[in-house]
Amino acid sequence: MSSLLTGMSELLVSGRRILSSESRHWRFASTSASTLKASTSKALPIATHAPLSALPTRVLLRSLLVSTISSKPLLLRSSLWALSILSKPNRGFLLSVDRNPVLHGILKKTFYEQFCAGENGAETKATIQELKEMGFRGVIMTYAKETVFDHSTKTAHGLGIAASESQEGYYCTNIEAWRKGTMETVELLESGDYLAVKLTGAGPLVTEAFSSNNIPPTQFLEALEEVSSRCRERGVRILVDAESQHFQWGILCVTLDLMRKYNHDGYALVYNTYQAYLKSTPETLAKHLTAAHQEGFTLGLKLVRGAYMASDKRSLIHDTKEDTDNAYNTFAQGALKQTIGDFGTKTTFPSVNLFLASHNKESVMNAHHLHQQRTAAGLPTVPVGFAQLHGMSDEVSFSLLALKDSSGLPEVYKCSTWGTMGECLAYLLRRAIENRDAVLRTTDEYNALKAEVRRRLGAMFSVSRR
């Protein structure tokens, strides 16, 4: 609570500084704009709007508040501590984000609305519509239930999952709750959108099967078939999220089976998520490319850097961020060039659809430009989409959108989560940890947001002085 109030104070101070700065510089900005227009009249076309100009003002100010907290180590540490306390199970009334109306209201209007789509269908649909009106091709939506395995404590935490397993015969209440929530998510989406699924959200029976390399319960597999069939009917693609490594090998097996069934003729309905920060990813990807090549299905390749550093075994992860960045760019550029390992040189490159989920501006811009170059030159490449998380890296997202051509490329999406406040707490905690581990990026975001506020204030003062 104190960190949130301090953050609000920081925001007000920033606003006053911006106003002061603008009162000195608005005339210069107006003159410079005219000079720039004259000097570039014969140059190549450039974006006529600032990347963040599409953000509604209330979203811009909320983003600035959250970014202020994220970019200040002391405030961020306090927020991480508070979120970790609130996310623990069996909280009393005062610390229950679902039952305490004051706590719920504060979090709802700040962190929750910044990163999550809604607590119910109506709120989620409204958020989806707002994002599309900003220019995004579509959304990636996930239902918040999941399980995280903490390697340091050797315990699994069910997030939004019943603590006790209720099972009668072959019926599991957690699997049914996951099926119902996931199907509700599918119905919120439209053709061209993506469903992101966390398979561990189906509860202990499923996660135990994943961790022991056993076949998940039939009820779960049938639910997954129902979800996949419905997505195919509605034109919604499926991104199977990467999760804690304790469960990941079981998730990979299930996802590959779905790809074999649904991914054909150059179209991937189902994507697996590959985490570039894992040392094992090159070997894993090589095995899956081999399977796609030999069995004739299209590999759905969603690439992320990785989000479970706080809970996964550290030795599984690259030693440095540079190593992770190099791995990410190697996979992304390799897929676009259709050369990864022996594939594309010694062996025919299989059918692949690529999806790049990244907040690294250099990575996504270079990938987009490479795709453009190869397409223009008639060189082989693969279909590619781009995404950033809802509430994060808007400057990256809107910079990509500013490059959209007459064919609608690049296709840019925002990825969000919906569910009750309690169900989404672990997701919010991971976003805070991600910001802690990306100091440079969060600082860049903070500066970009302040610059946009300055730009709007400058425009407002210019109009008022006319």
Automatic annotation (TrEMBL):
Q: Give the catalytic activity.
A: L-proline + a quinone = (S)-1-pyrroline-5-carboxylate + a quinol + H(+)
The kind of enzyme this is, by top-level EC class, is oxidoreductase
Q: What is its EC number?
A: 1.5.5.2
Q: Write out the GO biological process terms.
A: L-proline catabolic process to L-glutamate
Question: What residues does the Proline dehydrogenase domain cover?
Answer: 126-438
InterPro entries, alphabetized: FAD-linked_oxidoreductase-like, Proline_DH_dom, Proline_oxidase
This protein is called: Proline dehydrogenase
